[in-house]
Amino acid sequence: MFATLHPAVVHFPIALLLVGSAAALLYLYGPRRAELLVLAWVMLFLGWLGSAAAILTGLLAQSGLPPQAPYRGVLNRHIGSGMALAVVYAILLYQGWLSRARATSAGSGKKSRRAPRPSQLLDDPRARLWVTLLLVAGMLLAAASGWNGGRLVYEWGVNVK
Questions:
Q1: 34: burial class by Cβ within 10 Å (0-12, 13-18, 19+)?
Q2: Which residue in 23, 79, 96, 121 is a FRET match for 131, CA 20 to 30 A apart?
Q3: What pLDDT score does 116 carry?
Q4: How does DSSP classify residue 31?
Q5: pLDDT per position as a tens digit, 43-53
Q6: Which residues contact 58 (CB under 8 A, 6 or more apart)?
Q7: pLDDT greater at residue 15 or residue 102
Q8: 152 with 78: CB under 8 angstroms?
Q9: What SS3 class is residue 117?
Q10: What is the rounded distance in angstroms from the CA atom of residue 88 to the CA atom of residue 128?
Q11: Positive/negative CA dihedral, 96, 121, 78, 58
Q12: Which of 11, 150, 53 is nearest to 158 (CA)?
């Protein structure tokens, strides 16, 4: 069951994370449009949730595979890059949440009719470099995980019925 569920789930987080990362990078280095900011955070969050589902179904699907299979190295790289991908985007989302929470709590003492726009992680010039590195690392990990997953299916025929 999980062997068929995993391939159906993996494409969504890959697409969502890549689009979210591209939108964030475009926001960082291109026009600072509010639409890009919303697109980036929504896609990254949904992609991260999807990656959790992909990891869970993948781990369950691989549990029935022989431990000494010749493709075990490719499988381990696939699992490792998928786990690293989830960690990289979790760090990014957590830092974005912290940045927004700090700005919201700092601005709550002001008395104005219109609430100030909370500072975003992507608006912080001090965070620009490391956020860029996390986004690029996440995109590379998505490519590596997808590549190794494709190798498992098309070269080794893993879980292909």
A1: exposed
A2: 79
A3: 43
A4: -
A5: 999 999 999 99
A6: 6, 10, 78, 79, 82
A7: 15
A8: yes
A9: coil
A10: 16
A11: positive
A12: 150
